[in-house]
Design brief:
By secondary structure, the chain is α/β, with parallel strands linked by helices. It has 2 domains: about 230 residues, Glycogen Phosphorylase B (Rossmann fold); about 160 residues, Rossmann fold. It has 14 helices and 12 strands.
């Protein structure tokens, strides 16, 4: 089949699909990734074709109103170029959480079948609140109501984009909410690419919603850690990695300073991954690195301080190392709470009020209390038994041939 995977957002929203695409390509499919131009090299490294989507998600947005405004602008720009990446010879569209509300209308116009492949649990459930609203449970009824509200918020974000897209496709007017309800009544299938170690399948989910396991970003088998990283690792005990991914822009100086103070107060070496925040520090006990594959570095460290993005959370568990989560926004408090609930992480530290003292205490517990490592190692064994890409390939073979 000729498969187009459409994904949009920051690295954590797109990178997992390079691994899924590579597995689909391995079994004989022709796979193209449609994403922002930033990910062109990642797609091609995985052996995938690439088509550019407009817009770029802002990683660090504070406040729910600002988040809604930014998301609406992002999705509207995305929708304007979405039609251009779908060619008539496409046999199947695989759609991420962000692109699914747009891709469904393309299917209506072109007849090209599609399947939702999501990285977050978006369907309402009594088991937990929707990831975008935080981690505090509202009780089973409250969680379900909050889940419905979150879906309506997503409908609002996509309204302008869907209106313009349907007009361009010469389709009759239909709101995102009406289309979503139509899909729900039809028990539209959704495959979720995360681990049941973090989120067991809710018993009250409707048929068609399945958790298949994590889709890991593609990693070239020949890739190795940079020599300076290997030298630093060999020079002493395992360090702590500190990184905030696409979060923390504008906070680099503050985060770098308190991270180094906390590491030294705890008697630990550290690696700062610069990321969007621009973390940087000098010293024999601290190394600053750029973009280094988590799959290679995480198994070599004593713990990871991170923003609790879905991909980084999963990578830490896969490596079996404890975490100190410092969630910033969006679904990060949800994943941070899931880690802590597993016992593989300390209680989340609020990003806005993070102090060196609080981070020192959390690091000391994460590294020196063996219970965190044991829980992380147990989760790693659970993840190792899953095969998210393999299960997805089997599903597509059965459903689409």
């Amino acid at each position: 089949m000729r498969i187009l995977i459409a994904a949009a957002g920051s690295r954590g929203d797109v990178a997992p699909y390079t691994g899924l695409g590579a597995e689909l390509r391995r079994v004989g499919h022709d796979v193209v990734l449609a994403a922002h131009e930033t990910f062109a090299s990642s797609a091609r490294a995985a052996g995938l074709g690439f088509r550019g989507l407009p817009g770029r998600a802002e990683g660090d947005v504070s406040g729910r109103r600002e988040l809604m405004r930014t998301a609406t602008a992002f999705v509207t720009e995305l929708g304007q170029g979405f039609v251009d990446v779908v060619t008539p010879d496409t046999d199947l569209l695989l759609l991420s959480t962000t692109t699914a509300p747009l891709g469904r209308h393309l299917t209506e116009a072109t007849g090209i079948p599609n399947l939702d492949v999501h990285l977050q649990p978006t369907a309402p459930t009594g088991d937990f609140p929707p990831p975008v609203t935080g981690a505090r449970s509202l009780g089973r009824l409250g969680n379900r109501l909050a889940g419905r509200l979150a879906l309506r918020m997503a409908d609002r974000v996509h309204t302008q984009a869907v209106t313009e897209l349907r007009r361009r496709l010469d389709l009759p007017a239909r709101t995102p909410a009406a289309e979503r309800r139509r899909q729900e009544r039809a028990h539209r299938p959704v495959l979720h690419g995360f681990s049941t170690a973090l989120v067991p399948r809710p018993s009250d989910w409707r048929p068609g919603l399945e958790i298949v396991g994590t889709w890991w970003p593609y990693l070239d088998p020949a890739e190795r850690l940079p020599a300076e990283v290997e030298d630093f690792l060999a020079a002493g005990p395992p360090p702590v990695l500190v990184g905030f991914g696409s979060m923390g822009a504008g906070h680099g100086e503050r985060l770098s300073s308190l991270a180094v103070r906390a590491l030294r107060a705890a008697g630990l070496r550290g690696i700062l991954q610069s990321g969007s925040a621009g973390l940087a520090a000098d010293g024999d006990d601290v190394l600053t690195v750029g973009d280094v594959p988590h799959a290679l570095l995480f198994p070599r460290v004593a713990a990871v301080v991170h923003h609790a993005g879905a991909g980084t959370t999963a990578a830490g568990l896969r490596a079996g190392v404890p975490a100190v989560p410092v969630p910033v926004a969006a679904d990060q408090p949800f994943w941070a709470a899931r880690l802590a609930r597993l016992g593989a992480a300390t209680a989340p530290l609020p990003f806005g009020s993070l102090t060196a003292e609080a981070l020192t205490d959390a690091l000391d517990r994460a590294v020196r209390h063996p219970g965190y490592a044991r829980s992380a190692e147990a989760a790693a064994r659970h993840l190792a038994a899953e095969d998210g890409a393999g299960r997805t390939v089997a599903y597509l073979a059965e459903r689409f041939g």
